[in-house]
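Design review, sub-item: ligand-bound model
Attendees: FS, YL, KQ
YL presented the inputs for the pyridoxal-5'-phosphate complex:
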Amino acid sequence: MPSQIKSGIQFSALGLRAKSPTIERLMTAALDNPKLLSLAAGFTDNASLPHNVVRSAVNELTRRESKETLQYGLNQGRPLLRKQLAVHLATWEPQLMDAAADTRFFVTNGSQQALYLAMQVLCEPGDIVLVDRPSYFVFLEMLVAMGVRAISMPVDEHGRLNQSALKQRLTELELSGDRQRIKAVYFVSYYSNPSSRSLDEVEKRELAVTLTGQGLVIPVIEDAAYRDLYFSERSATPSTLTLSEWADFPKLYLSTLTKPFATGLKVGYGYCTEPDWLARMLHTKGHHDFGSANFNQAIIERVITDGGFERQLGDIRPMYLRKMLALHETLIAEGLRELGWTWSKPEGGLYLWLEAPENLDTGLATAFCRKCIDAGVLYVPGELCFGDEAPANFIRMSFGVLGETDLREAALRFVKVARSYSV
Ligand SMILES: Cc1ncc(COP(=O)(O)O)c(C=O)c1O
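KQ shared the predicted structure:
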C-alpha cells in the first residue's frame, strides 16, 4: 500500500506538504505553561483592544432597520469600505486618489489571505519567489507548503539590499536555467516582521532598476502590514505604487486593519494595479469564501466613519513605543550588548530583531532555546525567517502582547540565559 494512504484518505501533494505552522507550536508551548512569558506570538496588545469602539459600532449596526450587514456581502468587499481604504492610502500617497481607486482594492480575511491568493494565481510547484532577508516566516512556510522556492535577495551588514550581489544571484539563476521560474518578488517594506527595518527610498528604487536591468519586470508584492504602526513619525518613503522605477511592474500592495485595529475582526486588504491579476485573485477568492465576513467589514466601515480608527491609532502608537522601550532598555540595562548581542532600536512595528554572537545557535531544537523555555521566556528563532541559507544566531522578540512589567521580566530572564552562554 502506498505510504501516503492512511485510513483510506489519499492526500494531495499540497495536503502532504502542509505542516503545522511553527507559530501554532509556539503558541501551544505558551499555553502549556502559563508562567511562560511569550515574546514569540505576533499578537497585538490585549488591554488596548478597542472594545468600546466596537461595541458602539455593533449597537449602531444592529439598531438599524436594514439587516443588510448580516447578509452575505460582495466578494470584493464592501464598496464604502473600499472607498475609505482608498482615502486612507491617499493620506500617504495623494496621487493615488482617483475616481477608480476603490475598484483596485479588495478586502480579504486578513492580509494573510491576500498573500495566499497572490501566490495561488501566480505560482506552480517548483517556481521561485524572491524574498527579503530576513522575511515574514508565515509567508515562507506557505511557500514551502505550495512547493514554491523562496530565494533571498542578498543584503549588506546593515540589512540593506545589496544590488550587486543580487545581480550576481540573478545571473546564476539565468545560467542554471532557473530564471524563467521566478514569478514574483515579495518584501515587507515598513517596520518589517521580523527585522523592524524599513526599506529606504533609494534601495527601493534601486531594486526596481536591478530587476528591470535583468529583464525581470515581474509581479511585486509589497507587504505594508505595519505601515500604520509607526511610533512617532510617519515614514516618508513612498510605496512601490508611486515610485517611477516601479511604474511598469504589476503591483500588489497589501495591508491590514488587524494589527492597527482589531486582530479578531481579521479584515485585511490589497490594492492591485493589474486588472487581470486582480480578477484572477477575486475568482479564486470566490472559490475560498465568496467574500470576507460582511459584518466585520461593516464594523470597520462604521469605525472609520466616526473617527474611531484614527483615535485608536493615536492611542496605540505611543503605547507600543513605551512597550518597545521597556524591552529594549531592560535588555541594555541587563548587559546584553556587553555579551556580544546586537540589535537596532525600531521606529515602529512590533518586534526586536537580535543577532547573537556568531557561534551561538538559537534554533528551535537547541539547548539555548530549551533553556529559555525552562527559564520562562519564549522567542521566535530567527532561523525560521530566511528563505534560504539561514544563519543560526538570530531571534525575534515581539513586544506586542505582554505588558511593560512582563516585558521587563521577560528581558531579565532572557539575559540571564544569554549570560550563562557567554564565554
Ligand atoms: C508581515 C506580515 N504580513 C501579513 C500578516 C498577516 O496579517 P493579517 O492576516 O492579520 O492581516 C502578518 C501577520 O503577522 C505580517 O506580520
